[in-house]
Specification:
- The complex is a heterodimer of chains A (about 260) and B (about 150).
- Chain A is built from eleven helices and 14 strands.
- Chain A is α+β, with helices and mostly antiparallel strands.
- Chain A has a five-stranded antiparallel sheet. A four-stranded antiparallel sheet of chain A has the order 11-12-13-14. In chain A, strands 1-3-2 form a three-stranded parallel sheet, covered by helices on one side.
- The termini of chain A are far apart.
- Chain B has two domains: about 70 residues, Roll (Ubiquitin-like (UB roll)); about 70 residues, DNA polymerase, domain 1.
- A five-stranded mixed sheet of chain B has the order 2-1-5-3-4, with helices on one face.
- In chain B, helix 2 packs across helix 5.
- The chains are: A alpha+beta (about 260), B alpha+beta (about 150).
- At the A-B interface, strand 1, helix 2 and helix 6 of A face strand 4 and helix 3 of B.
Chain lengths: ~260, ~150
């Protein structure tokens, strides 16, 4: 790796001050994507500002309507949190399916969202669970946050502080892993809200996460769900767009079936 | 920079871009921790940081400041660690390159699940790749290690 300076920030203000003083600085959370990218020379920051130990960013909070998870919370902690398991079981399960055991004790919620890998898991949960991304500057609705291929609404230097997930009646995530990477070849998150409101978010198959409106509309009779339009899906060496469309349908049915069994 | 490595507090100076695995191998000559893929796929470089298995090729040494690191060299105290014994007895290896990482991940797994099912073992070792044996003996070794640890603690 190219030389850079490492700076561990003890609080949010220090992190921002450090960022302001160096336009080529990058925030470092778990480093599970950033460090490999730096090893490959894809990014060459002059400085890494480690925000992973800022206490405020590692808290999980509960209120009547929502569960709010600090951006630096590790996947493993979300997966094993009894609060998350009880209130949003689909989210805890999703976190348990990210990467492998070693990745899950380092990788963070905020890191995953800020990177917005088109095959990452957390974006699906965030979109389906009416997520609000709370940064040091504002609150961004999930609908507005994911703007495309590895792209988000975050401005330069903006830090995700926490993410608020609205508690569903029930939720489930179904994923088909790409065998080598563990990323989603396809992943479907289904959240059921009161008054039969259903939200379905799909990851892994397109340029980025998206809501599957046809699946939301025909949740109660999934035979009516029309296939995803192939033009919007990706084909790569791992799978064709047609295969991904098929997977999405199978996974939607699995997640929906799981929810119907619970409710 | 300061961290505890295999129970000994160590103070040292390295460049900020130095990886944890480089410190362990090059600075402290703890060469039991291997570098396999160097892309956090294979798990050869797995060590324990604050009792959790991490891939030391995808961590800066600086990120491990003030933490407790245990490598394969630090596992054996009074004779081999039960997981080491089990991998040897069950022949859970062929060339042995992946073994230190497999063993550190197994220690982490058995801390969480003292009596793991086959699925829990496969899930727990998903971040460690063995390219010679297949995994049958490795799974047998993990089960045998679980039994050994339980017998020890009774």
């Amino acid at each position: 790796m190219n030389p850079f300076k490492y700076h561990r920030a003890e609080n949010l203000q220090r992190a921002k001050d450090q960022q302001n003083s160096d336009e080529n600085a990058k925030y470092l959370a778990g480093g599970m994507t950033l460090l490999p990218a730096m090893k490959h020379g894809l990014i060459q920051p002059s400085q890494l500002i480690d925000i992973s130990t800022i206490i405020e960013l590692g808290e999980i909070q509960d209120d009547a309507l929502s569960v709010t998870i600090g951006a630096a919370t590790k996947h493993d902690r979300v997966a094993t949190s009894s609060l998350v398991q009880k209130e949003i079981s689909g989210l805890a399960y999703l976190a348990s399916q990210i990467g492998d055991a070693q990745v899950r004790v380092r990788g963070t919620l905020g890191g995953s969202l800020a990177n917005n890998d088109p095959a990452a898991d957390y974006p699906a949960a965030t979109l389906a669970l009416k997520g609000q991304i709370i940064t040091d500057r504002r609150t961004i609705e999930a609908e507005d946050f994911f703007t495309g291929f590895y792209a988000t609404a975050l401005e330069d230097g903006e830090i995700i502080r926490k993410v608020r997930f609205i508690k569903p009646v029930q939720s489930a995530y179904a994923k088909f892993k790409q065998a080598a990477s563990g990323y989603a070849l396809a992943g479907v998150f289904v959240a059921l809200y009161p008054n039969q409101e259903v939200r379905v978010a799909v990851t892994g198959v397109g340029q980025g996460v998206f809501r599957w409106l046809a699946a939301e509309k025909h949740y109660s009779d999934s035979s009516q769900v029309i296939d995803l339009h192939l033009d919007n899906l990706i084909t790569d060496l791992h799978a064709t767009s047609k295969y991904r469309a098929h997977l999405a349908k199978v996974l939607f049915n699995r997640a929906a079936t799981q929810i119907k069994q619970y409710t | 920079m300061q961290m505890t490595i295999n129970g000994v507090v160590q103070e040292f100076q390295v460049d900020d871009q130095t990886l944890l695995v480089e410190v362990l191998r090059d600075h402290f000559h703890l060469t039991g921790t291997h570098i396999g893929c160097d892309t956090s796929q294979c798990g050869c470089c797995t060590v324990l940081m604050n009792n959790e298995a991490v891939k030391s090729c995808t961590m800066l040494a600086a990120q491990a400041t003030d933490s407790q690191i245990v490598t394969i060299e630090g596992l054996a105290s009074d004779g081999l660690h039960p997981v080491q014994e089990a991998f040897s007895q069950e022949h859970g290896l062929q060339c042995g390159y992946c073994t230190p990482g497999m063993i550190m991940s197994t220690v982490h797994l058995l801390n969480r699940h003292p009596n793991p099912s086959d699925d829990q073992i496969k899930e727990g070792l998903a971040g460690n790749i063995c390219r010679c044996t297949g995994y049958v003996n490795i799974i047998a070794a993990v089960k045998s290690a679980a039994k050994k640890i339980q017998e020890k603690t009774v």
